[in-house]
C-alpha cells in the first residue's frame, strides 16, 4: 500500500493522476490473510472490483487455486482466484463454489497483473491488464460485506490450500461497472514506483485497500 497523506500529481498520459507506491500487501500462502467484518457497502447489482496481484508460487501447495479476494464465507458467495490448470494460472471468479468466469491469459509467477471484474445487471466481464478476457451472463447480487483479502473467503480453517502466496495491491471496489476506457486508465497510469490515484476518478471507489 502507500503512505498517507499523499500530494496531488499531474495526470499521466492515461488521464488519471498517479502517486508514489512502493508498498503492497504480502501473504505467505499458509496463514496470512486480512479480514474486514464490514457492513454492507450498499452494492447489489452493478459494480466493479480492480486489483493488482502477483503470485510467488501459485502451485506450491499442490492445489488447484489460490484465492485473493472474497466476500462472505467459504463456498457461500463471491471468490476471486488464480485457477491452476497444468501449471498454468488463470484469473477466475467463483460463486458459491462454482466457477462462473475464467480468463485466457496465463498468470505467471513473480509478475504483477491488473485484474478487473465488472458486473452489470446481466453480465460479468473479466479483464487482465486492460484486455477483455470473457463475458458471461449473471444476474446474482452480493452485499460486499465480510471481506477477505488473501484467503479466498475461507471463514473457517483459514490455513494451507487456497491461501494467497504472493502480493496484492490497490484492491478497489466500485459501485458501478467500469467501462473499457476507465480500465485502461487504471492500468496505464501504473508504472514502476507509481500507481493510479483512484481518488481522482470522476466517481472514486467506495472502498480502496
Descriptive labels:
globular, disordered N terminus, six-stranded antiparallel beta sheet, seven-stranded antiparallel beta sheet, single chain, 209 residues, mainly beta
Task: Furnish the topology, listing elements before pairings.
Blueprint: E1 18-20, E2 25-28, E3 34-36, E4 47-55, E5 65-71, E6 78-85, E7 88-95, E8 98-102, E9 113-119, E10 123-128, E11 131-137, E12 147-149, E13 165-174, H1 180-188, E14 194-196, E15 207-208
Antiparallel strand pairs: 1-14, 2-13, 3-12, 4-9, 4-13, 5-6, 5-12, 6-7, 7-8, 9-10, 10-11, 13-15
Quick take:
The protein is mostly beta strands. It is built from 1 helix and 15 strands.
Question: How is this structure best described in words?
Answer:
It is a single chain. The chain has 209 residues and is mainly beta. It contains one helix and 15 strands. The protein has one helix at residues 180-188, and strands at 18-20, 25-28, 34-36, 47-55, 65-71, 78-85, 88-95, 98-102, 113-119, 123-128, 131-137, 147-149, 165-174, 194-196, 207-208. The strands form three sheets. Strands 2, 4, 9, 10, 11, 13 and 15 form a seven-stranded antiparallel β-sheet that branches. The chain has a six-stranded antiparallel β-sheet with strand order 3-12-5-6-7-8, with no helix packed on it. A two-stranded antiparallel ribbon has the order 1-14. A hairpin with a 3-residue loop joins strand 9 (113-119) and strand 10 (123-128). The relative contact order is 0.29.
Amino acid at each position: 500500500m502507500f503512505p498517507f497523506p499523499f500530494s496531488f500529481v499531474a495526470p499521466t498520459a492515461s488521464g488519471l493522476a498517479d502517486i508514489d507506491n512502493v508498498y503492497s500487501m504480502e501473504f505467505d500462502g499458509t496463514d496470512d490473510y486480512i479480514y474486514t467484518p464490514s457492513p454492507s457497502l450498499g452494492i447489489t447489482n452493478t459494480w466493479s472490483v480492480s486489483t493488482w496481484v502477483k503470485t510467488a508460487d501459485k502451485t506450491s501447495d499442490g492445489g488447484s487455486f489460490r484465492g485473493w479476494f472474497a466476500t462472505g464465507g467459504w463456498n457461500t458467495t463471491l471468490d476471486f482466484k488464480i485457477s491452476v490448470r497444468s501449471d498454468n494460472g488463470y484469473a477466475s471468479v467463483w460463486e458459491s463454489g462454482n466457477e462462473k468466469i475464467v480468463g485466457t491469459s496465463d498468470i505467471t509467477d513473480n509478475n504483477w497483473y491488473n485484474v478487473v471484474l465488472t458486473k452489470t445487471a446481466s453480465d460479468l466481464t473479466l479483464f487482465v491488464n486492460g484486455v477483455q478476457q470473457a463475458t458471461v451472463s449473471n444476474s446474482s447480487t452480493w452485499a460486499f460485506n465480510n471481506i477477505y483479502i488473501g484467503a479466498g473467503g475461507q471463514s473457517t480453517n483459514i490455513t494451507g490450500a487456497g491461501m494467497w502466496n504472493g502480493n496484492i495491491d490497490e484492491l478497489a471496489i466500485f459501485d458501478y461497472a467500469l467501462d473499457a476506457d476507465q480500465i485502461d486508465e487504471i492500468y496505464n497510469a501504473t508504472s514502476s514506483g507509481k500507481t493510479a490515484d483512484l481518488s481522482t476518478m470522476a466517481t472514486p471507489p467506495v472502498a480502496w485497500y
